[in-house]
Amino acid sequence: MSNTTPVNSSEGPVAEYKKKLASGHLMPDKAQARLAEQLQILLQKIETFENNLKSFNWKQRLGFKNNKQIEIKGLYIYGDVGRGKSMLMDLFYSSIQIKKKRRVHFHAFLQDVHSRFNLFRKNNPEGGDPVPTVVKSIVEESKLLCFDELQVVNIVDAMILGRLFEGLLSHDVIIVATSNRPPDDLYKDGLQRDRFLPFIELIKNNLNIEHLGALKDYRLEKILGMKVYHYPLGKRATASLDNYFLDLTEGYSPSVDLIEVKGRIVKIPIAAAGVARISFMKLCGEPLGPADYLNIAGRYHTLILDDIPRMGESLKNEARRFITLIDALYENKVNLICSANAPAQELYVLGDGAFEFQRLVSRLMEMQSEEYVALPHGLV
């Protein structure tokens, strides 16, 4: 089936996209409509193949040989932040009638892969290559893998991805991925990048590359109209943050997010569509450090932080962690929406570290500006 095949849009991503247009949740966008059609074609290919496979089962039992399988290429979708990549992929994922499928943030997928590697090593103390075993376990679980925000930021992941994806593709796993970068820009300027180049070629040769060049940053359009710093604490501030989370994650199902950092797990109680929400005490009242906050900053474009208290000497450790958190968010251009018990300049005025806290106040003020909000998220 070629890309010129007529699209049956009675159900699937095209129909769901049109429903969102009709309800007013989306504005017409030619680039989004085109991508919806490409996803519809892919869905039809997969479901046609699956139906043909089922109808052939009786022939196999009689000893007939199956015809050569139709080649089905997945999709690599890239484009700027807020253009609707994840939203359209999710319309495809929710529409397709295939049991063995998985939709996962790419960062979480890599953590899962490393956990499987660790399990293999535990079960095979004499050594051995974990990749074939891990590939086999993933293939048994999923015929379709949908990755959100494919990115590569460290050499460990860069070194394993080529063999991992080669194994998945050789077992006819269909891959759909979103990214803010074209394939050639993945792991750009990374250590030993020459060893990563075969993975890029693998992506380009086995997936259809689609650029979502939507005209607007719809995420930015939403957040620019939002008040990002709310005080004092109370029902009104909480309700505002509730509404903002719903607005920014519309169409996505929020869930608990577990982030593995150096063998530890940082729990984000609610997250969806690149937005995380957590209370101040859960994020700054726990013994977390720079690595934890940098991982959070690299994973989300927006953090909604509830209930920042007015701090004194008794909360000096929490204040220090708050400084570290804000530094990580600021350096990675993460948007911060928060509720606090006082204006930023009055959060911590007495006690050890009060002078250093004033630098944080300056950054908090800057992070409320439209110029800051419009900046692209640093790591993705």
Give the overall pLDDT as a whole number: 86
Tell me, what's the shape? globular
* Strand percentage: 15-25%
Element string (H = helix, E = strand):
HHEHEHHEHEHEHEHEEEHHEHEHH
Give a quick account of the main beta sheet: strands, pairing sense, barrel closure.
6 strands, mixed
What structural class results from the helix and strand content? alpha/beta
Q: Enumerate the strands of the largest sheet in spatial order, edge to edge or round the barrel.
A: 6-11-10-9-8-7
The radius of gyration is: 23 Å
CATH topology of the largest domain: Rossmann fold
Number of strands: 11
Total domain units: 2
CATH homologous superfamily (4th level) name of the largest domain: P-loop containing nucleotide triphosphate hydrolases
How does CATH name the architecture of the largest domain?
A: 3-Layer(aba) Sandwich
**CATH C-level of the largest domain:** Alpha Beta
Assembly type of the chains comes to single chain
Describe this protein's structure:
The chain has two domains: 13-211, P-loop containing nucleotide triphosphate hydrolases (Rossmann fold), CATH 3.40.50; 218-373, Rossmann fold, CATH 3.40.50. 47% of the residues lie in helices and 16% in strands. It has 14 helices and eleven strands. The chain has helices at 13-23, 30-61, 85-95, 106-123, 130-141, 155-170, 197-206, 218-224, 235-248, 280-284, 290-299, 316-331, 354-366, 370-373; strands spanning 74-78, 101-105, 144-148, 174-179, 207-211, 229-230, 255-261, 264-272, 275-279, 302-308, 335-340. A six-stranded mixed beta sheet has the order 6-11-10-9-8-7, sandwiched between helices. Strand 7 and strand 8 form a beta hairpin. Helix 2 (30-61) packs parallel to helix 3, helix 5 (130-141) crosses helix 6 (155-170) and helix 12 (316-331) packs parallel to helix 13 (354-366).
